[in-house]
């Protein structure tokens, strides 16, 4: 990796997926090593850089939604039992802006899992005490 700030995992985190080229290119995205972070710590995080920003200087909404989609899968990870999945639907509510130089984090919860493999998940993106985006989604487990 390059020597840019935010490309090395912060303490307690590791690279989430170098296998997913899209997420790796847009990130890198880091996941908490325990998969069960303490209150105030995100399950996932990325370091916002200028390349993540829109023309107004804030982190681009598309990057925030990409990160939220990644968070849906990280939150529901155990429920896939080694299988893959797809996003069926995802809703996003922008609350405030993210800025370059900030660590943007994601946390959330599994709301419900059906017998047919549908998973309802919700969460938020945040930086310190500031909520940036609220998200919810429906995932579908695809047996491999």
Overview of this protein structure:
- The protein has 144 residues and is an alpha+beta fold.
- The protein has a single domain, classed as Thiol Ester Dehydrase, Chain A (Roll).
- It has two helices and seven strands, in the order βαββαββββ.
- It has helices at 21-26, 61-76, and strands at residues 13-15, 30-32, 44-47, 84-94, 103-113, 118-127, 130-142.
Radius of gyration: 15 Å
- Unreliable segments (pLDDT under 50, ≥5 consecutive)? none
- Oligomer classification: single chain
Instruction: Sketch the major β-sheet.
Output: 7 strands, antiparallel
CATH superfamily: Hotdog Thioesterase
CATH topology: Thiol Ester Dehydrase, Chain A
CATH architecture: Roll
Helix content: 10-25%
Give the rounded overall mean pLDDT. Answer: 89
The rounded distance between the terminal residues' Cα atoms is: 32 Å
> What is the H/E order?
EHEEHEEEE
For this entry, give a set of tags:
144 residues; alpha+beta; Thiol Ester Dehydrase, Chain A; 7-stranded antiparallel beta sheet; 2 helices
